[in-house]
Amino acid sequence: MRSCILHAVCGLGICLGFLGCTLDREGTGGEPDAGMGAGQSTGGASTMDASAGGTGGFDGSAGTQQGGQGGAAGIATGGTGGIQAGGSAGEPGGSGGGLSDEVCDDGIDNDGNGLVDCEDGACKAVGYRCVPAVPEEWEGYFWIHVRPYQGEDEETSCPGGEKANRYYSRNAEKAICDPCACSPLEGTLCDAPGIACDYKSKDCANAVPQPDLENFDCHNLSGSSISCQLTGNNPIAKLGSCAPIDEVPDFPNKFPFQDAVDLCAAPPNANTHGCDSQICMPPGEGGFAGAICIMQESEQSECPPQWDAENPLRLHLLENAIDTRSCSPCSCTVDGDSIDCEGGSYKVYDDDGCKSCNGIFCDDEMIVSTTECINLSKLADWDTISIRANARPTPKNGKCRVSGGVAQGSVQTMKGVTLCCVSP
Predict the structure, then answer these.
(1) Alpha-carbon span 198 to 195, nearest angstrom
(2) Closest C-alpha to 309, from 419, 414, 416
(3) Were 29 and a residue from 18, 42, 75, 207 both cysteine, which residue would form a disulfide, CB within 3.0 to 4.6 Å?
(4) Which domains does the chain have, with CATH numbers?
């Protein structure tokens, strides 16, 4: 319950009357049902008229985030605000007194959660992180953007708008040579077919090969009983040839490096807040939002402690690469074992000298063209008979052995730099 007392204040010949109200119970405010801010923000008596604004009671101290500005709001409402005990005026004043969002590079706990910069979850969420200090003889820090190198030479801009420094890494693998191939085999020639004869029987009972007949000359035979058959063993007179389709094969992986690496200098930052002895580094942007690196102008096999010691990244300029890769020339060799000579035949005459029969006392010529035995005895009458190869076997299945198209040479680099990084 509240009680009110009429007061009078006189000065300069003018008396002002106002009504001052207080709570019947003890306490200086801070009660939830009174709507006052925590601390001592009570609604005091207004000492000036409404036009003057009044003071709206005593200025409450900022006990909590909600009640610190109760009295100041009373000024805006004038004397009436003072009559309302200041509590209702303190509510809007409290909501305006909250802390701002965390700023991640000023060393201040802006949001009042007890965490500063890199140790604050809000900063970690946007990419701020602790990185080791730059060791002696190293330069840093750098943001990097790594992508597969595909031969493009377009410039890349850094997050701040400057031109990125272009390097290359991972020397290209050996040449991936296109396979060599040969044209079809041409010019193969089979010799006269193999033949076996028996000069004492009509059924090839004792037939033996006759290499002296295996040519295209005419041979006179003798005897009254003669039988012959092809052996199927047909020699090759000429292997022929095949040529490479491409003398030297090409290879598609022409680029001497596998990756293009763009470097951008990260802004210098000596802020160690939230990182103990390390440095709180801001994130890059876009493709540069990954690793943070240090660099040395020489090739190092290891990184300093706390950096990716097992994975130093060696970078090179394109003009410092010596690419000797190529593919060995193609060549083709005829595979004689793959050639089969099939067929062929001999013509047997009833007269010597391989002369055709023109009289009534001779028989027509006979052909020996299979491995089955042919009885030639009827042509051996009068002890005149001759034979000659008259058809060559046909070459089949000939192939060529292909060679070459083997990768040779490599990509050699010089004047490299070493990059050591910490990943996100």
Answers:
(1) 10
(2) 419
(3) 42
(4) 2-95 (no CATH), 192-233+345-391 (2.60.20)
